[in-house]
UniProtKB/TrEMBL annotation:
CDD domains: ATase. It comes from the Bacteria. It comes from Microbacterium paraoxydans. Keywords: DNA damage. This is Methylated-DNA--[protein]-cysteine S-methyltransferase. InterPro entries: MethylDNA_cys_MeTrfase_DNA-bd (IPR014048), MethylDNA_cys_MeTrfase_DNAb (IPR036217), MGMT_N_sf (IPR036631), WH-like_DNA-bd_sf (IPR036388). The keyword DNA damage applies. Residues 91-169 form the Methylated-DNA-[protein]-cysteine S-methyltransferase DNA binding domain. NCBIfam families: ogt (TIGR00589). It holds the Pfam family DNA_binding_1. Gene3D superfamilies: Methylated DNA-protein cysteine methyltransferase domain (3.30.160.70), Winged helix-like DNA-binding domain superfamily/Winged helix DNA-binding domain (1.10.10.10).
Length: 170
């Protein structure tokens, strides 16, 4: 199995995209100029048991979909890209797959996603799955909100979550 990486442009900067032979395995909004990218690549290497090689152009299809998305088109990444789920498992994987079904412009609470994923009462576990997802934007964890309807966090960047929700509400 080979792994490769490239960067894809977003309004937040060039984001890291890692691919396997089976599809996208990680999409992280850490910018290419971010000093954490070497650390992130190290972390991904440990998780995969292999070092991804740079592959300029590997993210071209993803970049095109991102352009459409940020232009306001309701892109559903999981039906237009192959996703390699190897960095997820168990309930987190079920929760992330359920999140893929949240429609453009819609939101569900962490508790509602827990029900869809087969574990009512596991709202905190859904929050953890959202926090550790290897698929920012590709799996729309930004569409999962608190039970009172407030957005909540998005890693260390709640302003990004608000941006994405506002984009989809137009």
């Amino acid at each position: 199995m080979t792994f490769r990486y490239d960067f894809a442009p977003t309004p937040f900067g060039d984001a890291l995209a890692v691919f396997s032979d089976e599809g996208i395995v990680r999409f992280d909004l850490s910018e290419s100029e971010d000093p954490h990218v070497p650390w992130l690549l190290e972390s991904v290497s440990r998780q995969l048991g292999a070092v991804p090689e740079p592959d300029p152009g590997a993210a071209d299809e993803l970049a095109q979909l991102l352009d459409e998305y940020f232009d306001g088109s309701p892109v559903r990444f999981d039906t237009q890209l192959r996703i390699d789920w190897r960095l997820t498992d168990g309930f987190a994987r079920r929760a992330l797959r359920a999140i893929c079904d949240i429609e453009w412009g819609q939101t569900l609470s962490y508790g509602e996603v827990a029900v869809l994923a087969g574990h009512p009462g596991a709202a905190r576990a859904v929050g953890t799955a959202c926090r550790i997802t290897p698929f920012s934007i590709v799996v729309p964890v930004h569409r999962v909100v608190r039970s009172d309807g407030s957005p909540g966090q998005y890693g260390a960047h709640p302003e990004r979550k608000r941006f994405l929700l506002d984009l989809e509400s137009r």
